[in-house]
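Changelog-linked ticket: 7TS example.
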Amino acid sequence: MSQQAQPLDVERLREDFPILDREFDGTRLVYLDNAATSQTPEPVIEAIADYYREYNANVHRGIHQLSQEASVAYEEAHDRVAEFIGADGREEIIFTKNTTESMNLVAYAWGLNELGPGDEVVLTEMEHHASLVTWQQIAKRTGADCKYIPITDEGRLDMDAARELITDDTEMVSAVHVSNTLGCINPVGELADVAHDHDAYMFVDAAQSVPNRPVDVEDLDADFLAFSGHKMCGPTGIGVLYGKRHVLEAMEPYLYGGEMIRKVTFEDSTWNELPWKFEAGTPLISQGIALAAACDYLDDLGMENVERHEAELAEYAHDRLTEHGDVEVYGPPGDDRGGLVAFNLDGVHAHDLSSILNDSAVAIRAGDHCTQPLHDVLGATASARASFYLYNTHKEVDRLVEAIDDARQLFA
Ligand code: 7TS
């Protein structure tokens, strides 16, 4: 973590999020489900409203003024996102619907064409279903195999096992950067080095890292990286696939149609330049523009500061949750994790706990968090999860702990 991180002025920035003032039966909402989706600040809501009020038009199609304004804003949104993650330019930034679609894009456009019997895709045991199910099914269709890097007893990625599992048969390594269940921060840059030593590609699932910490694709040397706008102060309906330019250039399109073509005859078609080759049809115009506004918002706060704030809350929550000895927290120790804590309270199902917390206006997630195989490894059918973001406070963690005390008493 950066030494220069400064405390966030949380009290002030909460004013940007009117939803945080909601009360249920007179009790102020405590929103701790940020790993599922984050709340949206006023400047991002304004960016969407401005677009529809001032320059709503289809892009790349009209020479009228509105279409030109929309096209410029939409294209510049790619530049803004490229800058946010240290990519080389808009050619490397494809707008999709979400992380899930970004993964499917690569799995279909690259995997279906390039994988075959004898090839291996190496994943981790802690993959979200978005990556696990996608590669599992593409492997089935192509005759390739999926292998899974295990976790250590402490709930980290087993890098010794990774070095053994990644071989010359490996074509793709796909790993989650920050686990949405364990909260561990995986050394994906190191994994990329191992993958490249064996001429395999590295895909980083950055759904829980780009929103929460500084991420630089060149530092990581990832070939592909995916994330979702709705987890980083942006709207739903926008995700990003980053790909190295030469890799994307060599790939076939994923969806066919308008926008993605250069020349069409009755016999054949040729493809538009990057990134438009992968953005068929009317794209995510207002969402993309709003995502750029979200990048501005986060950069103004400073991603090192966001990272530090979340790490402090996660450590505090970890310490407080384990005070009574009847809560099992999954993943590494409190001082070495991203901003989330998944746990189980002895004798209380996670769904019941979540429902009791809801009575105190504390919103958490309960279930398998789209990591069913990982929950099998952990020996749990479900878990409760509190996930923090830039607007959460230590007092809100206290509210979580008090609500868990209520549950403890109810089930005693
Ligand atoms: N990868 C990770 C690590 C995630 O946490 C999620 C969403 C995804 C991929 C998929 O993102 P989407 O935007 O395409 O849906 N994770 C969660 C979660 O933990 N609770 O709700 C969604």
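Closing comment: Example verified and attached. Residues 35-36, 98-100, 128, 130, 176, 180, 205, 207-208, 228, 365, 369-370 surround 7TS (CB under 6 Å). The CA atoms of residues 85 and 216 lie 5 Å apart.
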